[in-house]
Amino acid sequence: MIEISAQDTRIQIAPEFGCAVTQFQFGERNILRGTSSLSAVANDPREAACFPCVPWFGRLTEPLVSGTKQYAIKSNLPVCDDQFAIHGDGWVNAWVPSVVDESALTCTYLHQPTRGNYPFKYSAQQRFCATPAGLEISLGVRNESMNAIPVGLGLHPFFLRTATTRLTVSADEIWTPPSHDQPGDQRPTEPSTDFRQTNVLPDSGIDHTLLGWDGIARIENSGGVTTLRSDAPYLHLYAPIGQGYFCLEPITQLPGKFGNRLLNTGEDHVLTLSIEYTPN
């Protein structure tokens, strides 16, 4: 595990376990849900504070189609889903630290295709930077194969949820991801899913993509305000029933729509996210 810091900001990253963030603190306050232990992350990457989704986000409920070929990709995290592959390769493989200093860390992952996994060669890079205001992450993928390949990116941070949590996001539509027997559904927001005016998270749970957002999201808690900024076109909101966390995930492809974005040989695709905390 590697720690970077800047003034009151302290971040811990585990390159060997999916290059996951395991702690992000501002002073004594956890900005992301803290990880109980490295062994917990090793057993289940969903125990991390934040992990990368590369080269796709969401579940692959159908074979991957590229050109005239179809590729069946097996489950990559059976403890999460024993039927479908989910969230790509990055979060379930070790990364290699390449640049480290007091406030920044860069790690790389090189994917070699084998039968049953993502069938194209690519490299991924994740750069973390601790700032006096918070955390900046850049996640990129480069096509290292001889053909154009389908790609998508996502970052999956877990935020603390309390009775005082309020969310503001300027999105006017939502997307329900497809399942193996239901198509995806795009529709206007309803009172429980409309965060254009500051709103609470629904008690009934939510697992939808927010459409039409401007790249900024604001989380209010009793201690202060956390602000997200990203160049991603979509923001996925996951808030399960009865849990003390929720996820705001910037993504470059809609869940269930993987394959629409093709990356040419040697081309890069990059996603950025900053998380800044302002105490009251």
TrEMBL record:
<dbReference type="InterPro" id="IPR011013">
    <property type="entry name" value="Gal_mutarotase_sf_dom"/>
</dbReference>
<dbReference type="InterPro" id="IPR008183">
    <property type="entry name" value="Aldose_1/G6P_1-epimerase"/>
</dbReference>
<protein>
    <recommendedName>
        <fullName>Aldose 1-epimerase</fullName>
    </recommendedName>
</protein>
<dbReference type="Pfam" id="PF01263">
    <property type="entry name" value="Aldose_epim"/>
</dbReference>
<feature type="region of interest" description="Disordered">
    <location>
        <begin position="174"/>
        <end position="198"/>
    </location>
</feature>
<feature type="compositionally biased region" description="Polar residues">
    <location>
        <begin position="189"/>
        <end position="198"/>
    </location>
</feature>
<dbReference type="InterPro" id="IPR014718">
    <property type="entry name" value="GH-type_carb-bd"/>
</dbReference>
